[in-house]
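Changelog entry: the ABC transporter ATP-binding protein record was regenerated in this release. Current contents:
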Amino acid sequence: YYYAGLCSEGAMVFIRQRVLGKILHMNAEYFDQPESSRAKIVNDINQHSGALIAAPDHRLVFFVCFSSSFFACMSFALVTKWEIGLMGLGASIVLVVLLFGLFILMTNLMEREARESRTAELALEMFENTRTIQIMAVEGYFERKYECSQQDAMPLRNKIVVVQLLIYAFTQSTSFIFGLIAFAGGARFVFQGELSPIAHYIIGLSIEFAGCCLSYINPTFPDLVRANTAARIIYGYFDLPNEIDVGEDKVELSGEFAVSNIEFAYPARQDKKIIRQLCISASSGQRIALVGASGCGKSTIVALFERFYNQSNGIIALDGFDHRKLSLRNLRKQIALVEQEPVLFPGSIMENILLGCGKISIEEVRDASRMANAASFIEDLPEGYDTEVGSKGRSLSGGQKQRIAIARALVRKPKILLLDEATSALDGESEKVVQEALSVAAQGRTSIAITHRLSSIKDCSRIYFIGDGTVIESGTHEELIASNGKYASYVKAQSL
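Regenerated structure tokens:
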């Protein structure tokens, strides 16, 4: 039991690590699918990998032990008096066929429950968004929603309970049925003098004990069914296609790029093109900006640069290389992205800045923090760079989190810096500080800024106005104002 327990725990840890590793390497298209929700994946990893320990732990030992005893007793009966043994074996076959049918039925019901039940997912979503639920005072609504989710799952769970009871009834009655068959069926051999009463008694006990062994297997049966269901779900993750990353791994970029006639539609909506014949370019060290209405495709361009998706037509050339021919690791090491909502992980400020950087000196971290306007507030904290940021960086303000995210981008020394609405969620004072940091960060490297606040991009080398997934007009701030087009109307609307 001790070693079986160690085996099961080790197997569970191994499976969770493998599934997590597989999921982390999936592309963005996978996560866009409704069945790939974060709550479902977390539930599958925690619940179903736990159910799998029923396979290698002491329950399987229990199952094997009594199965072996059953075959030993039945073999003894067959060898001693094959006619009586055959009666017991026939009863065993009938019972096993019934149990196998119930096993299939129960497996199907449990798989259906795993597919249809959103109870665990809903609970996880509520716990992750507790603050929003409380702010909106909708606790009662979500309680009722959770209750409805439970009620919707009840008919299916009731069917599972009925099947479990049938399995229990069949297995618990086996010793009596087997005993009755053995003693009643063997009595005529005693009356005919073919079998002594002692031999009859021993054979009867042997067959009855075989029935007992089957009944003792019952407690392990539901766990093994759950393990079988869990295995189908968990190994479904292992069967996901690998994203093969075999591109160039040694190419050093200068930051020059040219986007030529690219087209793209999200996999979930192939009928609606988000990007249409789009062309933009920048020389090494240039600062360009993408502006336009919400939903025009600006953030999609960033996603294509990072290769979260691949364009259907056209090419994104980095220093003349098709960026799809660079390895993802090499590409993403040389492109840094600062988004509207910075993501910080539990741990210290230092750990968050150094995330994925390899060997970086403390002085390089301090330099990146100074460029990001973060060094002053970090060094004023009692624990400095060792300060814990908390879950999602909740111990810091929005501006502080954004500056740490900028420092994390700069410490990697990227050749291209992508800024996707990096200041839009900040108040005026924080925006000013962060904007100063972004201006410093953009110096000496190619940068693409996406923003609705046009005051921050007036000094860009080139501004592209995007509409319906393509470039409507482009030029410097002064040139676009002079042309009195879409960009000029946006500028007037913001009273610049």
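Strands lie at 257-264, 275-282, 287-291, 313-318, 321-322, 335-338, 416-420, 446-450, 462-467, 470-475.
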